[in-house]
């Protein structure tokens, strides 16, 4: 199974390893899921994580972690990005889902979750329940 993991799930999973997002990261690390990322998601990850008060990683550690993600994920760069969501910053994430042909987009972003009737989008809690992780 292939899934796009949105920035908010990556950040939450790293910051709160015992959360649903953390369980998804562990599921990925176990090889049970193939994750699809893009440079857009990785750039957001490196920009957002240092701002969190719960973050304990240094800037160098965050950079190394993002580099590790490059090696263990499929990195796809969408070629066509259409404005389909309420927040235009989410357009590249939806485009990644479509272009990568992933089975899921796992996100906590409400602007993306409202599209779940049209696209395979799921929140971390639902994903964990569905796959019993």
Provide tags for this entry.
single chain; 133 residues; alpha/beta; Rossmann fold
Topology:
Elements: E1 2-5, H1 7-15, H2 20-29, E2 34-37, H3 39-48, H4 59-72, E3 74-75, H5 91-100, E4 104-106, H6 110-113, E5 121-122, H7 124-131
Parallel strand pairs: 1-2, 1-4, 2-3, 4-5
Helix pairs in contact: 1-2, 1-3, 2-7, 3-4
Describe the protein's architecture and organization.
α3 packs antiparallel against α4. Helices cover 49% and strands 11% of the residues. The protein has helices at 7-15, 20-29, 39-48, 59-72, 91-100, 110-113, 124-131; strands at 2-5, 34-37, 74-75, 104-106, 121-122. Strands 3-2-1-4-5 form a five-stranded parallel sheet, sandwiched between helices. It has one domain: 3-Layer(aba) Sandwich (Rossmann fold). The protein has 133 residues and is of the alpha/beta class. α6 links the parallel β4 (104-106) and β5.
Overview in brief:
Helix 1 (7-15) crosses helix 3 (39-48) and helix 2 crosses helix 7 (124-131). This protein has 133 residues and is of the alpha/beta class. The protein has helices at 7-15, 20-29, 39-48, 59-72, 91-100, 110-113, 124-131; strands spanning 2-5, 34-37, 74-75, 104-106, 121-122.
